[in-house]
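Aim 2 progress. For Tyramine beta hydroxylase, the working sequence is reproduced below.
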Amino acid sequence: MEVFYCDSKPDVEMPMYEGNCFASDRPEITKTCSKVKAAWAMGAPPFTYPKEAGLPLGGPEANKYVMLEVHYNNPELRKDWVDSSGIVLHVTGNRRKYDAAIMELGLEYTDKMAIPGGQKAFPLTGYCIPQCTGVGLPAKGIIVFGSQLHTHLTGVAVWTRHARQGVELPVLNKDMHYSTHFQEIRILHRPVQILPGDFLETTCLYNTEDKHNATVGGHAITDEMCVNYMHYYPATELEVCKSAISNMALENYFKFEKRWDNMPISYNATPRMNYLSINPWTPLRTNVLDTLFYESPISMQCNKSDGSRFQGDWEGIPIPKIKLPLPEEHRNCPNENHLEN
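Predicted structure tokens for this construct:
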């Protein structure tokens, strides 16, 4: 679930629309309700802001409407279920020092990404590149105090790396035992400063050992996502800093699969349909796709809350590389033979 603020003039009335977010009859004015204010996912406990920051709501110049978006999984299209879900916000009139906000990192919500079937730990990575933080963040940067990692059913691990001028800094958030049923918003033990020009790299691992076909990116619970909802202050215009493989690179990949691998690819089909037409996912085909995602140029969503992009050329960008990574982390686990009964 997500709560969106309706970014319109104070006197604008919003229609009481209830229905599919992507329906053709959705009133156009409700599309101004796009600024994320709060989010919840399965397993998340109550979330409390730090004493120095809070979520700004209301005021004389603010519109009085918010929109609640709920994602349902109802493949049988049953009509005998009644839902009473919602989000409770506790509000104070004592404004805190900083206005907080949420920024999305990771991969775009698109079927340009896919995980082959039969994989134990297939990686997908989304990028927040220096060019985007350079135009979207204030000179003194932002302070990240919370993070919510998010995938759907096949995600098993998620982490976000942080680098500055090619030098890797401590990891922003990491969960190597991720469960989609326990998506808490973590208050970071060490608040992280992100400066203009910093680079953020969010990687998700997926287990599809019980599947034969590809699992494709999308909104359905049976699709996949790779996101880090980053809670920070002070609030900025930058709300989405996510990537996807470039259109040209993906088109060339499907042409290769059709011409050289004899897959039933259609140049008029969606990426979803073309991914699902590739079968079986042999080790060679899997490695080709992995290499494609790792090496291909990307397109960027460097977006404001209204969906508009910051000025810049965001298509066909080479993936930045961390030139000086942190040393590999070694874990000293006790030998089970030495454990006392």
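The chain is about 10% helix and 30% strand. This observation will guide construct design in the next reporting period.
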